[in-house]
Design a protein that fits this description.
138 residues; alpha+beta; Nucleoside Triphosphate Pyrophosphohydrolase; seven-stranded mixed sheet; 3 helices; 40% strand
């Protein structure tokens, strides 16, 4: 079975976290999910989960997080269609609101939502509802 390692990050401001709406060029479009992405191959192997989540958050939101801001929430396994998704997950508590800068090739919209508001959305990415429960946000 093919495996894919993807990292994701909950960016919290007060009692809400950031979700992004994928555009139609991505798998599972249009669907809401966290800032997230694949762990990339670099010289000598793969980048670390921490390197990947910092890079992906920057690429998808324009916000630079630092390693000391990250709270690990565990590595979660999902089985969408015919592959195994390995999903190391992190959280960052923001001290102030951030300006989100979307890459229109990847996302078309963003929102800060509570976990309950997130669950009301009809088009969450595969496993997002389960992830919220696993990390005890529901």
């Amino acid at each position: 079975m093919k495996e894919l390692r993807v990292v994701g990050c909950f960016l919290w401001y007060q009692d809400r976290f950031l979700i992004l709406l994928r555009n139609n060029n991505h798998p599972d479009p249009p669907s809401w999910g966290l800032p997230a992405g694949k762990v990339d191959m670099i010289e000598g192997g793969y980048e670390s989960d921490i390197q990947a989540v910092i890079r992906e958050t920057w690429e998808e939101t324009g916000y630079m997080i630092h390693e000391n801001m990250l709270e690990p929430l565990g590595t979660h396994i999902f089985y969408p269609s015919n592959f195994k998704l390995i999903f190391p997950t992190f959280a960052v508590q923001l001290d102030s609101p951030i300006e989100v800068i979307l890459n229109p090739r990847e996302h078309t919209e963003y929102r800060f939502v509570t976990a309950e508001e997130c669950m009301q959305l009809p088009n969450l990415i595969f496993g997002f509802d389960d992830l919220l429960s696993r990390v005890k946000y529901l």
